[in-house]
Amino acid sequence: MSDSNKTTQETATIRRDKKDRATEAPACGKDSIQPDRRSFLAGAAAFLGLISVSSCSWQEFVQNHFQRMTKTEIEETVERLRAEYKGKYGKDFVVGTEAPIDGTLFGYALDIQRCIGCRRCVYACVDENNQTRNPQMQYIRVLRFKDGNMDLEESSIYYDPEEVPEKGYYYMPVQCQHCANAPCTKVCPVRATWTEPDGIVVVDYNWCIGCRYCMAACPYMGRWFNFADPVIPADQVNTQTHYLGNRPRMRNVVEKCTFCIQRVRVGKYPMCVEVCPVGARKFGNLLDPDSEISRIISTKRVFRLKEELNTQPKFYYFFA
Amino acid sequence: MARSGFFISAGKRLVTGPPLYYLWVLLLLVLAGIGVSAYAVQLKTGLIVTGMTSYVSWGFYIGNFTFLVGVAAAAVLLIIPAYLYDFGPIRDIVIVGEALAVSALSMCLMFVTADLGRPDRVWHLIPGLGILNLPQSLLGWDIVVLNGYLFLNLFIPGYILYNAYRNRQVNMRFIWPFILLSIPWAVSIHTVTAFIYNGLAARPFWNASILAPRFLASAFCSGPALVIILYQIVRHYTKFHVKDEALHKIAEFISIAMAVNLFLLFAEFFKELYSNTHHLSPLKYLYLGLHGKGNLIPWIWTAFAFNVVAFVIFLIPATRKNFATLNLGCVLIIIGIWIEKGMGLIIPGFIPAPLGEVWEYMPTTLEVLIAIGIWAIGLLILTLILKIIIPIETGEFTAAGTVANSELRHGQIAA
């Protein structure tokens, strides 16, 4: 038994850097307990404390689905979350609940011809969307292809040259494709993930039961799971958040790209669009015939990834 | 009064037994305790203590779950000859098969719970209180059919045995519809479980129509193989009588099911190898390795060899009817199908990942300990159920406390 305990500790240590453990804020002050030999042996006792360990507060435990909450309930929840985040990061957070804007359906286009594979979008996204730094998580994967094919199995995300772009290669960033016919939302047993009227596929982190069926259903690696308590250094955390977007998450729930819902619903571009140094990323309203995105779709030759699966992504690739 | 009398005397029966019984229960309790402790660590730390990643997001737990759904579904192979064809030797023993189904189902539910990131939120699945995403989510359907099947397998034998205990006639007009319902229901639990994987276009390894039929075929191998071994243990340690004839009949079923299973495997191989598209990659990973990675290769070839050898054993009447070879065949099948339907089915579904990456998976020690704990709890449930129902079946345990009226059993039920 002690042997198995050792293995557990080792596993935990290998995956989480020891240094970062010190900076790691507990998910919910009173209940955060690191596994140790004693608690392992006193497992039966710990089991009785299942509810107190795995949920932070009574209010969080009974919290309703976002779409089923009344206005007052949402306000109370937001206040509770702000207090929780304040305690954890020592900062005042904005937890927005902006509704979709009428007459908008967001779409995205990415110019493969221009992308240089610099991964600035990847890191800007991590910062903007409060993804966990340890363990690491990135919504955007930049695939590198050898010239002459577009075979996903031959692509690689692990390239590390002195300079990009490299001769003989081209790049294709992939993130959640915000499918009109999303296989991920369909499979969720509790409807914790759904498509908003403006086309954004969102997750209610407080409703997700962590079954990971949506991850199995996604053909684009668009969904990521918090296998441990997310760790974001307090000085790097983004306090401008949205309830369905980049607010800090908890362990054992799924999260994903939301087109930066906290930005696009107040008229800004997603962070990856803003940060792209070559202007390869385009974003806008598909319902507006004069928007940049609509013009790209009507004037350029566009394609969508894995179109044969009929997922109907609202994420287009093109060659300008 | 009478009811509390039943529970008191049943309780007494649970705590009395030969030394070997105590030893067995103690062993299971220790293993269960280790499993529960390991689970406490997983709860507190998160699923990072498992080998799962965002690439391979299901693993050992879901593999065991899938195997055990098959075991539970296989009770139907006993119910059909017992109740529909009134095949005496099996009719007399069907109740043990139903007990096995109950314990397999409880293990299924435990494995799914162990896999769940937020078990504190399971109430989200309760319709009304939470939201059960029907009819869209196959996982939602699976919860419905698994719990329904658990109810049927508790209710039918429970009703029959309670009447036997009270020395009452069984009202066949009342129970018959439930028995009939349990047959398609058994098929449904395995079909729906297959559809969980089958419906995902993102995973070509699972997205083949052959999956559900293969699920059923392999379930009808592994479940009955477990049943054959279980019956021999039961008849060795209790007064419960199991005729050889019944076991040989079940062995015959297995040989047919294994033939179908191997044929379907061959069909799958042919389609993937001959068309040679990218859909071949997961199969290639499983059997030969991909990009130099192949953790599952030794496992899957073991499963393949075991299944083929077992098939031969069950095919030849001489080896099928010899208990030494029969038991060997059963063990080979159980292990073979456990690999094939467990890790061998779940892991290659995720490899290569949708964007082509090959990210391997192996369960951690903690994951294995939790799984062992769940198996121990399941076996404990089975042991305790059998401890109560077998004496009722044999007439040793009745309300009157006499053996005199013990004739009221399945013999009269099927009348």
Keywords summarizing the entry:
heterodimer; A: 320 residues; alpha+beta; Alpha-Beta Plaits; 2 domains; four-stranded mixed beta sheet; two-stranded parallel sheet; 30% helix; globular; disordered N terminus; B: 415 residues; mainly alpha; Formate dehydrogenase/DMSO reductase fold; 71% helix
What does this structure look like?
Chain B: The chain crosses the membrane at residues 21-41, 61-84, 93-114, 138-162, 174-196, 216-234, 246-267, 296-316, 328-348, 368-390. Chain B: It is a multi-pass membrane protein. Chain B: It comes from Desulfomonile tiedjei. The complex is a heterodimer of chains A (320) and B (415). With 320 residues, chain A is an alpha+beta fold. In chain A, strands 10-2-12-11 form a four-stranded mixed beta sheet. In chain A, strands 1-8 form a two-stranded parallel sheet. A two-stranded antiparallel sheet of chain A has the order 3-4. Chain A has 13 helices and twelve strands. The longest helix of chain A has 19 residues, at 71-89. Chain A folds into two domains: 2-54, no CATH class; 106-318, 2-Layer Sandwich (Alpha-Beta Plaits). Residues 1-48 and 51-55 of chain A have low confidence and may be disordered. In chain B, helix 3 (60-73) crosses helix 9 (211-237), helix 3 (60-73) crosses helix 14 (323-341) and helix 9 (211-237) runs antiparallel to helix 10. Chain B has 415 residues and is mostly helical. Chain B has one domain: Formate dehydrogenase/DMSO reductase domain (Formate dehydrogenase/DMSO reductase fold, Up-down Bundle). The longest helix of chain B is centred in the middle third of the chain and has 32 residues, at 244-275. Chain B is built from 17 helices and no strands. The chains are: A alpha+beta (320), B mainly alpha (415). At the A-B interface, helix 1, helix 3, helix 4, helix 5 and helix 9 of A face helix 2, helix 7 and helix 16 of B.
